[in-house]
Specification:
320 residues; D-Maltodextrin-Binding Protein, domain 2; 12 helices; Arc Repressor Mutant, subunit A
């Protein structure tokens, strides 16, 4: 890609000449002069310099769109040549939330890297909504979403079922609600969950309304578990007492362990061993969740991406 394209795109990403110059290892005056030359050549500004952070003009938006297309074409050419040579090299860019990267993919990353040591692995961690945007912008090759079909239709992605998890309610052991007669025999231990007892039809599912007087730790908007929690609370027909709203399910889990409130967790993040929590299977269809692997429909799918998808789906099917 031409240097001036890289300069313009970095300023667009950072919304600042000074931040972009630092990442490009240029002085700010040198970067400003380079972009000013492009603007003088086309006869129009690319950035609205009165805004902070900088915003694209309509001409700038058209320029960025072309830069993305050129970048993708260059990347696809390199990937095709590598695949034709059979080098089994390249770069794989995987985006995941903290939950995905910490609890679902570590063994997969290690196994894939051992099989294909020539492939450089780049792991990105952000919110699910941001990762979908990054995939649409071609900043990553694959990501995961619990929305699946909604995301695939909205952004023209391929959606491949990857794994399932089950949402449970985590309640600190010392909370009085655990002593309700209606909850007798319903509490699950971490060992019960690892054995899959919560997935057995015979295990009692309890109504969420029994916990309406507890303080809840919920996830923020843009997270699938936020939406599911609101649906379950709506089914139970009560107004929740929200103690905290957080961006990460893992943080909510640990704060619940420290008796700050009750929260919704995934069965896949619960590990064997001592825990200060009781877990309950809830009487709601929103507890069953499918995560899909997303990738773009358009463009060439290089060897590392094809092999990672195959390896990932096969590995996740055999995970407990």
């Amino acid at each position: 890609m031409k240097p001036e394209y890289q300069y313009i795109y970095q300023v667009y990403l950072d919304g600042s000449f000074s931040k972009a110059a630092e990442k490009l290892y240029l002085t700010q005056p040198a970067l400003s002069i380079a972009i000013q030359k492009v603007e003088n050549f086309i006869g129009a500004p690319l950035f609205d310099r009165s805004k902070r952070p900088l915003e694209l003009t309509s001409v700038g938006e058209a320029y960025i769109q072309v830069i993305r297309q050129v970048s993708q074409l260059e990347r696809e050419l390199d990937q095709r040549i590598e695949d034709i040579k059979g080098l089994q090299t390249g770069v794989l860019r995987v985006g995941g939330s903290h939950y995905i990267n910490s609890y679902i993919l570590p063994d997969i990353f290690t196994g894939f890297s051992n099989l294909y040591p020539g492939v450089k692995l780049e792991i990105f961690e952000s919110s699910p909504a941001r990762l979908v945007t990054m995939l649409a912008d071609q900043a990553i090759d694959v990501t995961f979403s619990a929305y699946g079909e909604e995301d695939s239709h909205a952004h023209d992605f391929h959606s491949i079922p990857a794994f399932y998890d089950y949402i449970l309610l985590a309640v600190p052991v010392g909370f009085k609600v655990n002593g309700l007669p209606e909850l007798s025999g319903a509490a699950l231990s971490p060992q019960d969950i690892r054995l899959g007892r919560h997935l057995e039809k015979s295990w009692p599912a309890v109504p969420l309304s029994l916990f309406k007087d507890e303080e809840f730790i919920l996830l923020s908007e843009g997270n699938n578990l936020h939406d599911r929690a609101l649906m379950m609370i709506g089914e139970a027909d009560f107004e929740p007492r929200v103690k905290l709203t957080l961006s990460q399910m893992v943080t909510a889990y640990h704060l619940a362990e420290h008796r700050l409130g009750v929260t919704f967790v995934s069965d896949r993040q619960i590990r064997p061993g001592p825990s200060g929590l009781c877990f309950y299977k809830l009487d709601s269809p929103w507890c069953d969740r499918t995560y899909n692997l997303l990738l773009r429909r358009s463009g060439y799918i290089p060897f590392p991406v094809r092999r990672f998808i195959q390896y990932c789906v096969e590995s996740l099917r055999t995970q407990p």
